[in-house]
Amino acid sequence: MDWMKKISTDKMLLGVVSLIVVGMSFIYLGKGKIGTEEITPTKSAITSVESPNTKIGVLEKELESKLQTNILMMEGVGKVQVSVNFLTGLKNEYVRNNNVTKRTNKETDKTGGTRETTEVTENNQVVMPSGSAQPVIAIEDRPEIGGVLVIAEGARDPKVREGIHTAVQTLLSIPSSRITVVPMGGA
Fold it and tell me: pLDDT, tens digit, for every residue of 22-49?
């Protein structure tokens, strides 16, 4: 009878993990907009495919690697796999050459009336270094983290799971609701 409870618990846990993976897939697939200065990642939560060699893909991989390295050093964690999803893309603010020219004309007609006109010309060009096709970047904002999934062998222990959750929340300064820690399954 005790083994039936274990099988039932394992099946329920597998179901919960499956729902999380499917939910994360919908989140990933729903974020496919590409703007003029924003890149949004498109990666599947089900397969472990290498991210393309884009800036956003490289940032995701670096962050996943750093988190994994830190989590692996924690006691009782065991094997770990980390997935990070960005909610927004990289945001760049470019250096601009702002020139404003103001010209005022005063005209007097034959009857003694005067008319004054002001012409303002604004030139707001992005600064391009000589011989380069890339503009000069003034500020580069990191993308906002949409969610983190941590799969760890030791996550069956509530203390280890809570420790991982707290560590990720502290390292990334993101709300608790954006972090999921689940035990690693399989044989």
Answer: 666 666 665 444 333 333 333 333 333 3
CB 152 within 8 A of CB 71: yes
Maximum C-alpha span of the chain: 110
Strand (E) or helix (H) holding 149: strand 145-152
The SS3 of residue 81 is: strand
Task: Map residue 80 onto helix, strand or coil.
Answer: strand
Helical segments of the chain, H only: 2-30, 55-72, 158-172
What residues contact 67, with CB distance under 8 A and at least 6 apart? 82, 84, 148, 150, 168, 171, 172
Q: In CATH, what is the architecture of 2-90+142-183?
A: 2-Layer Sandwich (3.30)
- Extents of the domains making up the chain: 2-90+142-183, 93-126
Give the predicted TM-score (pTM) of the model: 0.50
Which distant-in-sequence residues (6+ apart) come within 8 Å of 54 by Cβ?
Answer: 39, 41
76: left (phi over 0), alpha (psi -120 to 50) or beta: left
